[in-house]
Amino acid sequence: VWLSNLARRPVSLVPGSDLVEPLARLAAREGVPVALLGATQETLDRAARHLTDSNPGLQVVACLAPSRSFDPLGTEAGEMVAALRASGARLTFLALGAPKQEIFAARCRAELPDVGFASVGAGLDFLASSQRRAISLRLSTSRSLSVLRLPRLRPETSANLGASIDRTCHLRPRRAGSGARPQKPAGRAPR
Fold it and tell me: What is the bridge-based pairing of β-strands 60-64 and 34-38?
């Protein structure tokens, strides 16, 4: 994103998890077989079912669930590479989390040059309803919280949430040009 701004051709940052369904639609339309790698076997099976139900013609040719101690450069990764090669997949959704999925994709670039890899983080978990998406909020002071995990909120509740967080955390806005992060005041003000 930063380099695109320098080139005066800005692009927006898109989470990998948001790319699963559009890429699956494209793979179904073009007849590209896909593999799912990461998460648990149950999650992969549910995600595969969701993707094939919502994308007629999509071929999910492999669902590979590595162990929790998966090392993208280790022996198990070599077994996953062999399984992907044998599956005939041309696109693999990697749900290993960062940086494992990126390291594994870089390894596969040399070993499986005809296979594309999409790092989707928890995208398959979201499709399988194994995990709920976090919501991102913009605070009233124009700072953004990266991600908060909150229950579903009524619109009138979420509208006032930013101001409530500011008050609760005693956050102060940044001074122009300071580059410093907002900090809590040293002492609490009397009530």
Answer: parallel
101 or 151, higher pLDDT: 101
Say if residues 39 and 95 touch (Cβ distance below 8 Å).
yes
Nearest to 89 by CA among 17, 29, 23, 36: 36
In angstroms, the CA 109 to CA 116 distance is 8
pLDDT in tens, 79-129: 999 999 999 999 999 999 889 999 999 999 999 999 999 988 878 877 866
What does the block give as tokens for 5? Answer: 């701004």
- How far is residue 154's CA from residue 170's CA, in Å, rounded to a whole number? 24
Q: How many CB atoms lie within 10 A of CB 120?
A: 27
d(CA 79, CA 27): 25
